[in-house]
C-alpha cells in the first residue's frame, strides 16, 4: 500500500503510532518502526532533556525512521521543539494546539511536519504554513479530542487540502484502515490498539482494562471547561462528571486528575487514574507484538481494498 505518506516518510506500511503521553516511549516507538510503520515518541509534558534521552534510546533499538509528537500545551513545548532539531529527527507531529511558531525552524531543518488537527479550518491553515501532511483526528480518539467524527472529518479535510491526510480516531483493525482509505486518507494513526502491544511498557492492569472494555465504556471529562478528554469509565470519571455537573471550577477539577494518567499507566491504578483510550477499546481483545498487529491489519486492509477495486 504505497501512498504519498509512505513515500514521504520512507516507511513500508501506512500506519503511524499515536504520540500518547506516558505510553509512546522508546520501546514502543522502535517496535512500531521495526514492524514497518512509523513509531512516535510522545513528548507529552516531559522536559526537553527527557525527550532527548528517549530519542537516543530509540535510535539504539532501530535504524528505521521514527518521529516525535510535540504536545503544544506542554510547558516544555519550546524546549522539545528545539531538541527534535538538534537530534536530527525527520518527522514531527503536533497535538492539542497550533504549531505555527515552530514551522520555519522545523522546515529549515528538513523535518516533515504533520500537525494533528480536529477541524477543516486548522488543516487549511497548516497547509498554508507549510505542513507536509495533516492527521485528521476524530472524536472517537482517546485523550484530548475535538468534536467532529472521523467519518465526517476525514473526507471534508481531504476535499479542503492538497497535502496528504492521515486518519485517526476509531481505527483499530484492517477494516478501519480500509474505511479510512475510502474516505480519502493515505495513512492512519492508531493509539489504543498499540497501548496493549507486547512491547508497550504500560502497566498490565491498564492493558487488561482496555482488553475488557466494551463498546460504550468510554467517557469524556472536561467538556465544561473546554478540555475534553476521552478515557475509560471508572471511579475517577464518575466523580469528575458529578463535580462537573455541579459546576465546579477548572482548578477544582484539575486537582482530581493531577498526575492521574501516570498513576494509571505506571502504577496500574485503573480506578482512580485516568485510563485514556479511544472508542475502539471494545475491539481490542488481546496483547500481540507490534509486528503481529501490523501484519494482521495490513493483510485485512489489502484484502478489503482489492475487493473494492473489482
Ligand atoms: O493531542 C491530542 N491528544 C492528547 S494530548 C494529551 S496530553 C494532555 N494533557 C493535559 C491536558 C491536555 C492534554 C492527551 N491526548 N490529540 C491531537 C489533537 N489536537 N486533538 C485535537 C487537537 C486540537 C484541538 C484544537 C488541535 C488544535 C486545536 O486548536 C488549535 C487552534 O489554535 O485552533
Give a brief outline of the structure.
With 310 residues, this protein is of the alpha/beta class. The chain has helices at residues 4-9, 26-34, 48-61, 77-86, 100-108, 120-128, 150-160, 174-182, 192-195, 204-212, 235-245, 250-256, 260-267, 290-309; strands at 15-17, 39-42, 66-71, 91-95, 112-117, 134-137, 143-144, 165-168, 187-190, 218-221, 229-232.
Folded structure, characterized:
The strands form two sheets. Strands 1-9-8-6-5-4-3-2 form an eight-stranded parallel beta sheet. The protein is globular, with a radius of gyration of 18 Å. It has helices at residues 4-9, 26-34, 48-61, 77-86, 100-108, 120-128, 150-160, 174-182, 192-195, 204-212, 235-245, 250-256, 260-267, 290-309; strands spanning 15-17, 39-42, 66-71, 91-95, 112-117, 134-137, 143-144, 165-168, 187-190, 218-221, 229-232. The chain has 14 helices and eleven strands. The chain is α/β, with parallel strands linked by helices and 310 residues long. The model has no long low-confidence stretch (mean pLDDT 97).
Amino acid at each position: 500500500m504505497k501512498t504519498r505518506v509512505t513515500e514521504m516518510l520512507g516507511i513500508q506500511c501506512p500506519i503511524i503510532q499515536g504520540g500518547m503521553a506516558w505510553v509512546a516511549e522508546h520501546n514502543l516507538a522502535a517496535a512500531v518502526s521495526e514492524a514497518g510503520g512509523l513509531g512516535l515518541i510522545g513528548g507529552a509534558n516531559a522536559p526537553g532533556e527527557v525527550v532527548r534521552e528517549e530519542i537516543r534510546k530509540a535510535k539504539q533499538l532501530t535504524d528505521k525512521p521514527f518521529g516525535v509528537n510535540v504536545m503544544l500545551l506542554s510547558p516544555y513545548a519550546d524546549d522539545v521543539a528545539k531538541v527534535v532539531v538538534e537530534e536530527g529527527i525527520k518527522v514531527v507531529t503536533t497535538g492539542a494546539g497550533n504549531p505555527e511558531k515552530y514551522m520555519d525552524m522545523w522546515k529549515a531543518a528538513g523535518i516533515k511536519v504533520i500537525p494533528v488537527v480536529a477541524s477543516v479550518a486548522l488543516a487549511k491553515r497548516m497547509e498554508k504554513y507549510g505542513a507536509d501532511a495533516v492527521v485528521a483526528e476524530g472524536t472517537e480518539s482517546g485523550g484530548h479530542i475535538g468534536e467532529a467524527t472521523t467519518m465526517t472529518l476525514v473526507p471534508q479535510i481531504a476535499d479542503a487540502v492538497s497535502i496528504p491526510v492521515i486518519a485517526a480516531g476509531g481505527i483499530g483493525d484492517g477494516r478501519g484502515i480500509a474505511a479510512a482509505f475510502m474516505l480519502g486518507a493515505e495513512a492512519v494513526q492508531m493509539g489504543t490498539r498499540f497501548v496493549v502491544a507486547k512491547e508497550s511498557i504500560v502497566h498490565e492492569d491498564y492493558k487488561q482494562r482496555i482488553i475488557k472494555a466494551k463498546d460504550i465504556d468510554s467517557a469524556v471529562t472536561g467538556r465544561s471547561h473546554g478540555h475534553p478528554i476521552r478515557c475509560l469509565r471508572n471511579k475517577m470519571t464518575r466523580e469528575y462528571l458529578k463535580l462537573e455537573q455541579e459546576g465546579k471550577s477548572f482548578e477544582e477539577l484539575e486537582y482530581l486528575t493531577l498526575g492521574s494518567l501516570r498513576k494509571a499507566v505506571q502504577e496500574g491504578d485503573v480506578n482512580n487514574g485516568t485510563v485514556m483510550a479511544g472508542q475502539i477499546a471494545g475491539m481490542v481483545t488481546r496483547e500481540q507484538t507490534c509486528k503481529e498487529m501490523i501484519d494482521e491489519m495490513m493483510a485485512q486492509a489489502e484484502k478489503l481494498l482489492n475487493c473494492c477495486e473489482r
